[in-house]
TrEMBL record:
<keyword id="KW-0460">Magnesium</keyword>
<feature type="domain" description="Mur ligase C-terminal">
    <location>
        <begin position="282"/>
        <end position="415"/>
    </location>
</feature>
<dbReference type="InterPro" id="IPR018109">
    <property type="entry name" value="Folylpolyglutamate_synth_CS"/>
</dbReference>
<keyword id="KW-0067">ATP-binding</keyword>
<dbReference type="GO" id="GO:0004326">
    <property type="term" value="F:tetrahydrofolylpolyglutamate synthase activity"/>
</dbReference>
<dbReference type="InterPro" id="IPR004101">
    <property type="entry name" value="Mur_ligase_C"/>
</dbReference>
<dbReference type="Pfam" id="PF02875">
    <property type="entry name" value="Mur_ligase_C"/>
</dbReference>
<dbReference type="Pfam" id="PF08245">
    <property type="entry name" value="Mur_ligase_M"/>
</dbReference>
<dbReference type="InterPro" id="IPR036565">
    <property type="entry name" value="Mur-like_cat_sf"/>
</dbReference>
<keyword id="KW-0436">Ligase</keyword>
<dbReference type="InterPro" id="IPR036615">
    <property type="entry name" value="Mur_ligase_C_dom_sf"/>
</dbReference>
<keyword id="KW-0547">Nucleotide-binding</keyword>
<dbReference type="InterPro" id="IPR001645">
    <property type="entry name" value="Folylpolyglutamate_synth"/>
</dbReference>
<dbReference type="GO" id="GO:0008841">
    <property type="term" value="F:dihydrofolate synthase activity"/>
</dbReference>
<protein>
    <recommendedName>
        <fullName>tetrahydrofolate synthase</fullName>
        <ecNumber>6.3.2.17</ecNumber>
    </recommendedName>
</protein>
<feature type="domain" description="Mur ligase central">
    <location>
        <begin position="51"/>
        <end position="225"/>
    </location>
</feature>
<comment type="similarity">
    <text>Belongs to the folylpolyglutamate synthase family.</text>
</comment>
């Protein structure tokens, strides 16, 4: 496949996603190590903070990057998944990689990807592995001082786990991705502590005794110094993000304090300035839209996709919008605990619009649960709540929000970052923003 444009670069990367009829990919770091070796190990050209955990790792990564950038450092940020464009996964000083630069990088790395695939001991690197390698190469070319790297899934065998960070953050541990990581928090914790390396600083806000014991044991084995975040009195107000994000901010602030290089002493006013007005796309995001016909409309986009994240969202909505009921536009990825999430939403729900998403995920296409299945789950929880099915997120938003005859005033789109990304793209296109 020739790469001659941004769209062809995307097509090439998507060709690396397993499809129907292809065998399941073996989880190993061998492919990413070999690919990085061939391209010169760009991950060794900058310092790093590695951010793992079940919930809040994306927000924590954004916060750490924002603080470092405000303090004047050249900062790379690797996140996953993306909301709207794949470019979001590799950011430098708060801006996603431009399309042209992205295409050039994909064209440059393609021969190395193909070479790894031809070698007898390896199969071709995955979509996610190639994106991780591209991020590291981009940060190297931009001469980043430091990169904040979000774990994709788990820890031990995640493709990002090839860096030797100054600091590793494990925000918390809860049940998610149980089909891959294990069906208990202890099994999941064992995987997540894999990002703890020799003699580094470790920050966690985990609460469960069994999880903390696993983290402490790993730190002892690796001679790593552990800091447990219990209180966060010095975190500034986080108006756009919600107070539930304070623990994530505390993790980010403490991680930066623990970086060994003495010149990374950042004044408190810099921290406050970075966080006070920080908005993170798809996290308790209030959309103020010119195209919306209802003057009093509240539209919230939040990519909560597991029970722990949904619990935080519900708490934030209750605090910010006292006694208000919401219409929830909801979709969930296959394998997620949709029932537990819906149980949390029901007490503040006026109505549900169930839909799906067509986004390409790191594991394949069309990975959303069927809306019909979600209706069945809701009716089991509470048969009295109104539920409607829309086959696509676009039809849900057009009928609910863009319809001038709609009487709905409080809407929250949630259940999946992929759904939130589709809705966000639709609204931005309509607004030309």
């Amino acid at each position: 496949m020739q790469i001659y444009s941004y769209s062809s670069a995307i097509r090439y990367l998507e060709s690396l996603i397993p499809g129907k009829g292809r065998k399941e990919r073996v989880y190993t770091l061998d492919r990413i190590w070999r690919l990085l070796e061939l391209i010169g190990n760009p991950q060794n050209s900058f310092k790093s903070i590695h951010v793992g955990g079940t919930s809040g790792k994306g927000s924590t990564a954004y916060m750490a990057a924002a603080i470092l950038e405000e303090a004047g450092y050249r900062v790379g940020l690797h996140i996953s998944p993306h909301l709207e464009k794949i470019n979001e996964r590799m950011q430098f000083n708060g801006k996603s990689i431009p399309d042209k630069h992205f295409s050039v990088l994909v064209q440059w790395i393609k021969p190395y990807v193909e070479r790894v695939g031809r070698e007898s001991d390896f199969e071709k690197p995955s979509y996610f592995e190639v994106l991780v390698a591209l991020s590291f190469e981009y940060f190297k070319r931009k001469k980043a001082d430091i990169a904040v790297v979000e774990v994709g899934l788990g820890g031990a065998l995640d493709a990002t786990n090839v860096i030797k960070p100054e600091v590793a953050i494990i925000t918390n541990v809860d049940l998610d991705h149980t089909e891959i990581l294990g069906n208990t928090i202890e099994k999941i914790a064992q995987d997540k502590v894999g990002i703890i390396k020799e003699r580094i600083e470790v920050i966690t806000a985990a609460r469960q005794k069994s999880v903390l014991e696993i983290i402490k044991k790993r730190c002892k084995e690796k001679n790593a110094r552990l800091t447990i975040i219990k209180k966060h009195p010095n975190v500034p107000p986080l108006r756009p993000l919600g107070e539930h994000q304070k623990v994530n901010a505390a993790c980010a602030i403490e991680a930066i304090k623990r970086i060994k290089e003495k010149r990374l002493k950042i004044k408190e006013e810099r921290v406050k300035k970075a966080l006070i007005n920080l908005t993170i796309p798809g996290r308790l995001e209030l959309v103020r839209s010119l195209i919306l016909n209802h003057k009093s409309l509240i539209l919230i986009l939040d990519g909560a996709h597991n029970p722990a994240k949904m619990k935080s969202l519900v708490a934030a909505l209750k605090k910010l919008y006292v006694k208000k009921k919401f219409t929830f536009v909801f979709a969930a990825k296959k394998g997620k605990d949709a029932e537990a999430m819906l149980r949390l939403l029901v007490p503040i729900a006026e109505k549900f619009i169930f839909t799906g998403f067509g986004a390409t995920t790191d594991f394949g296409k069309n990975q959303s649960m069927s809306p019909e299945e979600l209706v069945k789950i809701l009716k089991k929880i509470n048969p009295k709540i109104s539920a409607e099915i829309k086959k696509t997120s676009k039809s849900a938003i057009i009928s609910l929000i863009l319809n001038p005859l709609s009487s709905i005033h409080n809407v929250c789109v949630t259940g999946s970052l992929y759904l939130v990304g589709e809705v966000r793209t639709l609204i931005c296109q309509k607004n030309k923003v």
